[in-house]
Amino acid sequence: MATFAERLEEALKDKGWSARQAQREMKRTHPDLAITHAYISGLRRGKRTNPSTEVVIALAQLFDVSVSWLLGEDPPPPQLSAEDQQRHQTVREGLAELGVQNIAERMVGLSPLSLEAIEKMVEAMRQAEQLHGNTDVQ
After folding, report:
1. Three-state SS across 22-63?
2. Are residues 98 and 53 in the same domain?
3. What's the rounded Cα separation, in Å, for the pair 10 and 30?
4. Helix axes 112-128, 82-97, angle to 10 degrees
5. What is the Cα–Cα distance from 43 to 89, expressed in whole angstroms?
6. Rounded alpha-carbon distances, angstroms, from residue 84 to 67, 73, 135
7. pLDDT digit string (tens) for 58-68?
8. Which among 40, 68, 102, 109 has most CB atoms closer than 10 A?
9. Nearest residue to 58 via CA among 34, 88, 80, 74
10. What sections of the sequence does the record tag as coiled-coil (predicted)?
11. Of 137 and 22, more confident
12. What is the distance in angstroms between the CA of the first residue and the CA of the last residue of the chain?
C-alpha cells in the first residue's frame, strides 16, 4: 500500500507540477483554503504527515483522483502512453513559450481527443480573425 506522500508525489509528477504550481492552482480552485507551497512540499516528502480532511479533499479534487487513492488505498489511475505524455509536454512547452502558462498548466491531463479539439478551436479562431498562416507572435 502506497503512502500519502508517495501518492502526492505521483499526482504532482503526473501533472508535471512543482509544489509551487500546485499551490497556485489550489489558490485558484480553493481560495478559502490557505495552503503554502512549502506545506505541499512537506506533504510530498513525508515531513508533514497529518493534513486536515479539508486539505486531503481539496488535493484529491485538484489532481482529479479519489481521496482513497490519495490516501494510498486504491490502485493507481491509468497512465498516459509515452506518446501522449510527449504530446502533452510539447503542447505545454509551446503554450508556455507564448506566454500562456496558465492555459498550458490547465491542459495537463486532457485526453488526446480534447487536445485535438482545442487545436481545432484555435485554428477556427485564427481563421475567423483572418490570421491564416500567420503564426508570428505579436
Report:
1. HHHHHHHHCCCCCCCHHHHHHHHHCCCCCCCHHHHHHHHHHH
2. no
3. 21
4. 30
5. 25
6. 26, 27, 24
7. 999 999 888 98
8. 40
9. 34
10. none
11. 22
12. 51
Q: How far is CA 13 from the centre of its chain?
A: 9
Res. 137 pLDDT band, cuts 50 70 90? very low
Same domain? For 29 and 56 the reply is yes
- Banded pLDDT at 104 (limits 50, 70, 90): low
The pLDDT value given to residue 8 = 95
Report yes or no: 74 and 57 within 8 Å, Cβ to Cβ.
no
Residue where the block lists cell 505545454: 92
3 state SS of 87: helix
How far, in Å, CA of 133 to CA of 102, rounded?
25
Distance, CA of 76 to chain centre:
16
> How many domains does the chain divide into?
2
